[in-house]
Amino acid sequence: MTTATAQLGRLEHTMVRSPGFWGMMLLIATEAALFAYLLFSYFYLASMATSPWPPDGPPKLDLVLPNTGLLLLSSGSMYWAESGIRSGRTARLRVGLLITLVLGAIFLTIQGIEYSKKTFSPTTHAYGSLFFTITGFHGAHVFAGLLMIAVITVRAFLGHFRQGAHEAVTNVSWYWHFVDLVWLCVFTSLYLSPHFG
Amino acid sequence: MSRYPILPALALAACEPSPSYLRPSGYVGDRQAALGWVLLLIAAFVIVVVSALVIAAVYHRRPAASGSMRATGGLRWIVVGGVAIPAAILLATMVYSMVVLAQTARASTAPALTVQVTGHRWWWEVRYPGTESSEVVTGANEIHIPVGVPVKLELSTGDVIHSFWIPQLAGKTDLIPGQRNLAWIEADRPGSYRGQCAEYCGLQHAHMMITVVAQPRGEFTRWLAAQRQPATAPTDGEALVGRDLFVRSACSLCHTVRGTEAGGILGPDLTHVGSRRMIAAGTLSNTPGNLTGWIENPQASKPGVIMPAIPFQPNQLHAVVTYLRALE
Amino acid sequence: MATVAPPLPTAAQDQRLRRIWETKPGLFGFFGTVDHKKIGKRYLVTSLVFLLLGGAEAAVMRLQLAHSNQHLVTPEQYNQLFTMHGVTMIFWYAAPVLSGFSNFLWPLLIGSRDMAFPRLNAYSYWTFLLSGLFLYSSVLVGQSPDGGWFAYVPLTGSAFSPGLNLDFYALALLFLTISATVGAINFIVTLFKLRAPGMSINRIPIFMWGTLTNSFSILFALPALSVACVMLYLDRRFGTHFFDAAAGGHPLLWQHLFWIFGHPWVYIVVLPAMGIVSDALPTFCRRPLVGYTAVALATVTTGILGFGVWVHHMFATGLPPLALSFFSAASFAITIPSAIAVFAWIATIWTGRPVIRTSFLFMAGFIVLFVIGGVSGVATAAASFDQQLTDTYFVVAHLHYVLIGINLFGVAAGVYYWFPKMTGRMLDERLGRWNFWTMFLGFNLGFFPMHISGLLGMPRRVYTYPAGLGWDTVNLITTVGAFLFAVGVLLLIANLVRSRLTGAAAGPNPWDGPTLEWAISSPPPPYNFAVIPTVGSRHPLWEDRLKEGARTVLAEGPTLDQEKTTLETSPLDAVLTDVLRMPEDSLYPVLHAVGLTAVFYGLLIRSTALSLVGGILVLALTIGWLWPARRELEAES
Ligand code: HEA
Ligand code: HEA
Ligand code: CUA
Ligand SMILES: [Cu+2]
User: Fold this and answer.
1) Fewest 10 Å CB contacts: which of A97, B205, C76, C490?
2) C24 Cβ contact list (under 8 Å, min separation 6)
3) What atom in ligand 2 is closest to the CA of residue C463?
């Protein structure tokens, strides 16, 4: 790059985001639309329902509340890791990523336990189909996020990232925060809203 | 006869009776057709004007070319032609079309009669509800209504989505699983009005016709009374044989003939099949020959139809047909 | 006149840049190339083949419908024909053909050397191709989709469609979704990051506004289709109940999801084509487009309003009149932006000095057909009258006037306009005139009568119709016209093939066009621009004639001839911000797409093993793809 830049003289460096970052933002945008349509489907069928909705009462919150906290925590640890490498602290990056990995994994496990406790299945009724599809879609995104984090963790230990050279970390962290945000929407729609009204 | 000027192209078809909603009869049909003509005339007008403008724009005389290229100008075109005029036209038509929508959404007066129509692949079940079972009439593919009064239709489906449509009487209303749609029709001239399923519903979507027969009040009440009767017991020998064959064979699994043991519900009620003009949802006219052919092999005239071919000896077949013909 | 006769690179420069940018010959180069020009041409050719396939299906349909009570095809075959026809044309022709133009032109229009994500670009082509082959493999087992292109449930549920037909439909569309999505992201990022210095956002061609709007619409509309198709597949495969009224689902959920996607999509497949006209028409009128800003805004507005009209496809479903009125009004409103575009074009012709070439003819025809299709759309937008029009041939007429009128005619105009740039050869003008007039007359002869058969009460999607209803004559005329039109399309293909081999040499700028792509040789060298230009106006090559003074600099500037790099600039006013390293050719895209194909076939034949293998392959390839090359790490240190 040095030779190329040489021909250009001065580069006007304003706070610039890389194409990769733009790509991630647009991916997040279209994924957000995806979940919007899933939740639209949920509320549409709820509004058309002739029998009680959800069929067997509002979902229990005993497991999901702590689990939600867990996921929010993982956003925190992710932020901690990413801000670490922004100021060049490689060790903090590695630790932060590992913590996030663990928290995310626990989230999925607890969600699995909650699934096993459900009295209905995706084929019981439309509500069941929606519940498992929406939470399942989100779970799949958490899983994808964990894979990304796993990869950058490896790269972090290979010493790929330095101050000012950690684009992958930034993009993945954005994705992870997005996945958490989606969970808050799913949580309020599927778990909380049935408790009010 | 149309009460509106006939498009030259419609004239093409004028010789034949076409079920065009531009030749309406009755409250809803009239209003929708009137709106239709307005929209079509506006469309024609816009097309002519714009096409003319395009041609003129290419060929109109121009001042001699100067050296440089024209960079600006022409914005007035957009303001006037692109915004002002269309906005005016569109606003007016929009208001008009909404008035019509409001008018046609509800019956002009309280409906005199309610008919329940159920869509099946690929035929229409028509039910006249009554307070006691003896009053209930179930027929197929033919709705009789009294002239000049609004008739309420309760539309539901037994399988997939169909769409109820009698072009000359009213626009479409879909028959959708899990929801009961209401529509209403009113014919101001006696006669029969052709209708056809308008939502793609599979193999025989093309052969899912229905006829509305509008009759003077008296005629209609007589028809209804006749339909309420159970099947007329056959008198001559062959018809009797036919009935037993019908009741004992597979037929009775799918067809009902009130007054006999035949109580199937997969197919049309045949109690008064003899009185219908067409069979198999408007696919064949109701003649002995067609009836025979139909029973011999329904798949021939309506490939994919739910009704299987039942193996009969020719004489048995003849007996069954004689019996069905007798079900006036 | 420096701006008119751009400098050609010196032999030395040319050699250096070619060594960096040229695709390696041989199989690796064929499967691994990331050159946007190659990919763009592949997109165009592939989608034209799909046009021929869809057209062949239509030709059979027209024979069957030429007369009442015909038995040329069985009902089953007919239903597969019209479904495959619609699906092919809408998804594998109309949208991809425009991506073809965008792919080829995008970097040329903005003075860049490639797309922002060249490998993703190749990937979107391979997934497009393979999803299409996946769809057409259904023909081999005789179980092509037969539920209509919008596949209403419950007819398309497993209860009434047990075969593989609808599984092919749902999975092929999901597959294609991936291609369209990555493509859209690539166009947006390229537009905002890779424009040559000085090319501020208000200087980009209208075609780019069209594709930009279309890309955003794709990102926000396509997920609705994905969700619908996933639900359909789950209902069919695992017995979930999304659309099952008996278990708390609802058939209308499908219709809402489909049309929330569906209406934006119909603008997705025309906005770039309208852009083609907005950019090519001025060249032949020898003046800039009238009302650039108005047209650009109209384009974006159409895209946004497009999300607010979907219920006009559901006017007969028994929704309350209030709801119908709202969406009816929105559908009326959406005509205004279109009207703005139409009158901008007319004004451009009127106040300009038109030079009549085949491309111009197609654009003039385009305007007329657009208006015919548009006003029939307005007729259907009137809810109460649409309850008569819907599901009749009137709608079939409408959709062909808009789709063929604004997509196919725009595409033809674009082909005649840019073919010289793509191949270095001119298309034959005489053949071109024949081509236009057969297509234009054939089209109107074939499709105008559809309005009438619709008004005569002929429903769509019927494999035959009875005699004596006045439908025979119009249908016969339709069939004749359709075949005349088909001949026109074949003439276009013929002209393409012939001129490709023997056409006259084009030279850099045969039409004396104003935009950057005409500043370089035809066909463009692998590296596009030897010198990255600095743009000073909307019409770099017309500045002298527009008396704007030569503000654009084509002669000197960065040559970037050391490494595979291009310039990165700021999103709005395009000030230089960085130099980007561009990836080399790579097999990852094609292999990744193949892995996906395995996944989808696994889902189709219900073989978890196959899906798993494909999935793992995809995963591994993704990691490999994104793993940084050694030099990047060094560059960063
Ligand atoms: C190529 C894509 C395309 C485009 C651009 C359009 C444009 C429009 N469409 Fe169309 N439409 C389709 C593709 C498209 N459509 C398809 C594929 C279907 C069928 C789907 C199916 O069922 O299979 C369909 C169906 C369809 C329906 C549903 C019909 C039904 O099934 O019952 C409706 C109803 O409102 C509609 C409306 C409109 C309107 C109002 C416009 C407007 O955008 C048109 C605006 C343009 C103009 C009006 C012309 C220019 C304006 C002027 C010259 C100004 C003067 C004009 C007036 C004053 C009127 N369309
Ligand atoms: C861009 C979109 C597009 C295009 C270009 C076309 C092109 C054509 N369509 Fe279109 N059509 C649709 C989109 C399109 N269609 C859609 C979305 C539907 C709705 C589907 C549904 O209801 O689900 C539809 C439905 C539809 C119907 C209604 C079917 C029904 O409801 O029963 C009919 C009937 O005539 C028809 C006819 C034609 C014809 C004659 C052409 C002609 O333009 C075709 C011209 C011919 C060619 C372009 C090919 C020329 C070459 C050959 C014929 C031989 C060589 C072939 C090979 C070498 C393979 N189409
Ligand atoms: Cu019933 Cu179409
Ligand atoms: Cu629409």
Assistant:
1) C490
2) C32, C585
3) 32
Please report where in the chains the tokens 């009185």 appear, as a residue: B275
Tokens representing C157 are 């549920």
For C456, the closest chain B residue by CA position comes to B20
The DSSP 8-state label assigned to residue B131 in this structure reads: S
Q: Six-digit token pair at B28?
A: 């809803």
Q: Whose CA is nearest to atom 52 of ligand 1?
A: C339
What φ, ψ does residue B285 adopt, rounded to 5°? -75, 150
C307 C-alpha vs ligand 4 centroid, how far in Å?
9
Subunits close to C (at least 3 CB pairs below 8 A)? A, B
Cβ burial, residue C456 (10 Å; 0-12/13-18/19+): buried
Tokens of C564: 């595979």
Residues with CB under 6 A from ligand 2: C 51-53, 55-56, 58-59, 61-62, 82-83, 85-86, 89-90, 93-94, 148-149, 396, 399-400, 403-404, 407-408, 460-461, 482, 485-486, 489-490
Q: What is the DSSP letter of C297?
A: H
User: What are the backbone angles phi and psi of residue C432, rounded to the nearest 5°?
Assistant: -60, -45
Q: What is the pLDDT along chain A (197 residues), one digit of tens a residue?
A: 344 444 454 444 446 788 999 999 999 999 999 999 999 999 999 999 988 989 989 999 999 999 999 999 999 999 999 999 999 999 999 999 999 999 999 999 999 999 999 999 999 999 999 999 999 999 999 999 999 999 999 999 999 999 888 999 999 999 999 999 999 999 999 999 999 86
Q: Is a pLDDT exceeding 90 seen at residue B255?
A: yes
Q: Does C323 touch chain B (CB under 8 A)?
A: no
Contact C606, C237 (CB under 8 A): yes
Q: Which amino acid appears at position C365 of this protein?
A: G
Q: Is C403 in the pocket of ligand 1 (CB under 6 A)?
A: yes
Q: Is C279 on the interface with B (CB under 8 A)?
A: no
Cα(A39)–Cα(C539) distance, rounded to whole angstroms?
47
B65–C379 CB contact, under 8 Å:
no
Chain C positions in Cβ-Cβ contact with residue A127 (cut-off 8 Å): 248
Of B70, B73, B78, the CB nearest to C344: B78
Query: Is the peptide bond preceding residue C628 cis, with omega within 30 degrees of 0?
Result: no
Cβ atoms of residues C125 and C117 within 8 Å: no
Question: Two tokens at C119?
Answer: 């490998």
Chains in touch with A (3+ beta-carbon pairs under 8 Å) read: C
pTM value surpassing 0.90:
yes
Q: Is the CB of C390 under 6 A from ligand 1?
A: yes
Among protein residues, the one with the nearest Cα to ligand 3's atom 1 is B162
Q: Kindly state the helix (H) or strand (E) to which residue C608 belongs, with its residue range.
A: helix C608-626
Of the candidates C148, C343, C469, the beta carbon closest to that of B82 is on C343
User: What is the model's pLDDT at position B111?
Assistant: 82
**ipTM of the assembly?**
0.94
Count the neighbouring beta carbons within 10 Å of the beta carbon of residue B180: 12
Separation of alpha carbons A145 and A151, rounded Å? 10
Instruction: Tell me if chain C has a CB within 8 Å of the CB of B104.
Output: yes
Q: Give just the sign of the alpha carbon dihedral C95, C98, C104, C106.
A: negative
Rounded mean pLDDT of chain A?
91
Ranges of beta strands (E only) in chain B are: 113-120, 123-128, 137-140, 142-146, 151-157, 162-166, 170-175, 181-185, 191-196, 209-215, 278-279, 284-285
Q: What is the pLDDT of residue C550?
A: 67
Residues of chain C with pLDDT under 70: 1-8, 550, 631, 633-637
Task: Tell me which residue has its CA closest to atom 37 in ligand 1.
Answer: C377
| pLDDT at residue B305 greater than cutoff 60 | yes
Query: How many helices and strands in chain C, by DSSP H and E?
Result: 22, 2
Residue whose Cα lies nearest atom 50 of ligand 2: it is C486
Quick one: pLDDT at residue A197?
67
Both tokens assigned to C439: 């297509």
